[in-house]
# Entry
Amino acid sequence: MNQYFTIVDVPDFGWKINYRHKIMMLGSCFTENMGQKLEDYKFNIDQNPFGILYNPESIAKSLNRLIDATPYTEKDLFEHEGIWGSFDHHSRFSSVDKNETLDKINTRLHSASLHLKEADHLFISFGTSWIYELQKTSKIVSNCHKFPASDFKRSKLTIENITERYRVLLADLWKFNSNLKIIFTVSPIRHWKDGAVENQLSKSTLLIAVDELIKIVGIEKCAYFPSYEIVMDELRDYRFYASDLLHLNDSAVEHIWDKFMNIMFADETKKIMKDVIKLAKAMRHRPFNLESEPYRKFLLYNLELINGLTNNFPFLNLLNEKKHFERKLVDSQGRL
# Structure
């Protein structure tokens, strides 16, 4: 049989994710694609507590902040056109109220620091090696918040910049949490505003830096998942992209997720995942007749499934699902 596309081999890391584990994810919007999948399957995950981050320096700075857990204060914020925000954070944290902004930032910082301290797996997704430095402070920002381009100095991190920064950072992370397994990936989403050549140079810098870093620290607790290569080689077609021709569509995300799932989860975990996603689909079910006996049996079946899962796997948090079906059952009985 003819083979019509190349297959990217994903090596076994030697360790797996299960439902007892805590997971932390930081990085580009690709991180949020995978993170949303993990959330849908009810894994214990904290993703992007600073919002979407693109460059290695901003991600490293955020991880350092999670390690020392120093709260943000008013002097860490900016006020621009009536909006209070932070150059360390995505605009989702911004607000017209200074105290509200600080509260959102510090609440997430506190919970994420505790989560990282107990996490089993940390996923880091690099998007670009291009950085923006605020001229008046000489600090690298995580988000420009639509300030004028003239306010920033643009440059590119080198392979040496990244590897040295992360060599120190990983040592600090393992002091903070000695059980942490770290998985790097390079986002397959192109930063087209950088330019075609500049984007490719940026991605190449990230790929070489990660490879050098893993050689330095070893493969026992550090690995690379080839999401970039999967898109470039297995999905080399614009039908796997969204309408902007830059971001991935649902089919591409599903393909990468399937490869990720096959390498990262043990068979027992995959079995639980099938039941969990079955519950998620059942919650979206819209019956024609809320008073019918088949619908009542449908609700009871899902409540039995939840009880069975939580009895066998008490670490699963299915409280929201249980409340949903119990409420629907009460509503259904009230109509009889």
Observations:
- The domain at 22-265 is CATH 3.40.50.1110 (Rossmann fold).
- The first strand starts at residue 22 and ends at 27.
- The chain is about 50% helix and 15% strand.
